[in-house]
Design a protein that fits this description.
Helices cover 32% and strands 22% of the residues. It has 465 residues and is of the alpha/beta class. The chain has three domains: 87 residues, NAD(P)-binding Rossmann-like Domain (Rossmann fold, 3-Layer(aba) Sandwich); 201 residues, UDP-N-acetylmuramoyl-L-alanine:D-glutamate ligase (3-Layer(aba) Sandwich); 136 residues, Alpha-Beta Complex (Protein-Tyrosine Phosphatase, Chain A). It has a six-stranded parallel beta sheet with strand order 7-8-6-9-10-11, sandwiched between helices. A six-stranded mixed beta sheet has the order 15-16-20-17-18-19, with helices on both faces.
Length: 465
């Protein structure tokens, strides 16, 4: 739901951060007549070359306090902490500071659906988009994944539905951001390398409900007490979903179906057999997406068709290959303890997870009992390798590896002859990789190398299927 557009013509706007969202915001602002400066701590940003000739100026190598203090508006990219000294100086000078998500939402002409939560945002966002498209809606999908919201403004129409993945980093700097439907999938401690406390992280997430009113909808996980509490602060109508209990009103599982119980009517939406995703926790994401579809009026047949045609996202419980009886699963997006826990619990035995990276907070000891019950061993990587080994000591054998390729080789040896190698890091990727996607790609490349090596040892035997 669009807010009041910002008047930026002739005004000085600083965009903090020259990554994907920041550059999209800068292009949008320049096109609307703003005097735009893009600031980044990196000495060079090759991607920014695309904005040369648009009137945008650049300040690389650090955020200059004087530039921020002299601005009429500061727009913050998701990757830039709002504790940056230059942003504090801007606030002290009375300069408004908003997120790229907030900026773009002011100029949208269509309705907004925002998806947040600690785990499953991307899968749910993409699936909601596919369901609405199957139902005949004009849809734009993006935000924290894919196309930044700022890049959707030009094509936005009154009948466009913008389905947006919204992170805590984006939500903490909103003002009028107003979703027609806000989805909160789950909540667990995360990003404690960025947020000072769990409460601060929760408060940022809860802002997705902040500007909703009684005409809007909050789609919430009834199995998560924290989600229920955070949603209770909002004014929107609540539409719960639950995989674990039967709800008198809401979306639930009954006799092998996702069923919508609303206004004393039970409607079968999607058969569980249509779901092609690894892991029972991903059923939650399908239920949430189907609830959004039901609110929007998408027919059950269209919802089912969208689910049947969706095999998941890259790096999210992605079945990569089977080599010599060992399956390899890429869940590089499992960047926190809760996500890794759900990944691990998706398998019953023979598991060898690869865990580690840059630790973001949380309790790694929560993995002890699940791993003791189903893992043959663990390979620890990255900055957190020693922390992982200490947290799991006595529960499961842990081997440390210096590279991801070495980790995959070690995990394969431990998993043979019929186990599962699972990349479920429980940590961020930035100690070794540019992002979780690069980590996932390198995992798949390492698996491919094992496959080719095994193929060379066995004449005519196809190693990967």
């Amino acid at each position: 739901m669009a807010g009041a557009g910002l008047e930026v013509t002739g005004r000085r706007v600083v965009v903090a951060g020259a990554a994907r969202s920041g550059l999209a915001a800068a292009k949008l602002l320049a096109g609307r007549g703003a005097k735009v400066t893009v600031s980044d701590v990196r000495p060079e940003v090759p991607e920014a070359q695309a904005l040369r000739g648009t009137g945008v100026t650049f300040e690389f190598g650090g955020h200059l306090a004087d530039t921020f203090a002299a601005a009429d508006l500061v727009v913050v990219s998701p990757g830039v902490p709002t504790t940056q000294p230059a942003i504090r100086v801007a606030r002290a000078a009375g300069v408004p500071v908003v997120s790229e998500l907030e900026l773009a939402s002011r100029w949208l002409r269509g309705r907004l659906i925002a998806v947040t939560g600690t785990k499953g945002k991307s899968t749910t966002t993409v699936l909601v988009g596919r369901m609405l498209e199957a139902g005949g809606f004009r849809v734009a999908v993006g935000g924290n994944i894919g196309v930044p919201l700022s890049a959707q403004v030009a094509a936005s129409t009154p009948d466009t539905v913008h389905v947006v993945e919204a992170s805590s980093f984006q939500l903490e700097q909103i003002d009028q951001f107003h979703p027609w439907i806000a989805v909160m999938l789950n909540f667990s401690p995360d990003h404690l390398d960025r947020h000072a406390t769990v409460d601060e992280y929760a408060a940022a997430k809860a802002r997705v409900f902040e500007n909703q009113d009684e005409r809007d909808w909050a789609v919430i996980n009834a199995d998560d007490p924290t989600v229920l509490e955070l949603a209770s602060r909002g004014r929107a109508r609540r539409r719960p979903f639950s995989r674990r209990t039967t709800l008198p009103a809401g979306t639930t599982l009954e006799s092998g179906w996702i069923v919508d119980r609303w206004n004393d009517v039970a409607t079968r939406l999607v058969p569980v057999s249509a779901i092609r995703l690894l892991g029972p926790h991903l059923v939650d994401d399908v239920m949430a997406a189907a609830t959004v579809g039901a609110i929007a009026g998408v027919a059950p047949a269209a919802l089912t068709g969208a689910v049947e045609g969706f095999s998941g996202l890259e790096h999210a419980m992605e079945l990569v290959a089977e080599v010599g009886g060992v399956r390899f699963v890429n869940d590089s997006k499992a960047t926190n303890v809760e996500s890794a826990l759900r990944s691990i619990e998706s398998f019953e035995h023979g598991l060898v997870p690869i865990i580690g990276g840059r630790f973001k907070g949380g309790d790694l000891e929560r993995l002890r009992a699940p791993l003791a019950a189903r893992a043959k061993g663990v390979v620890a990587i990255g900055e957190a390798a020693a922390r992982v080994a200490a947290a799991l000591e006595g529960a499961v054998a842990v081997r440390q590896a210096t590279t991801l390729g070495e980790a995959v080789d070690a995990a394969y040896a431990m998993a043979r002859p019929s186990g599962i190698v699972l990349l479920a890091p429980a940590c961020a990727s930035f100690d070794m990789f540019s992002d979780y996607a690069e980590r996932g790609r390198q995992f798949k490349q390492a698996v491919d190398r094992i496959g080719r090596r095994m193929a060379g040892r066995r004449d005519g035997d196809a190693p990967m299927r």
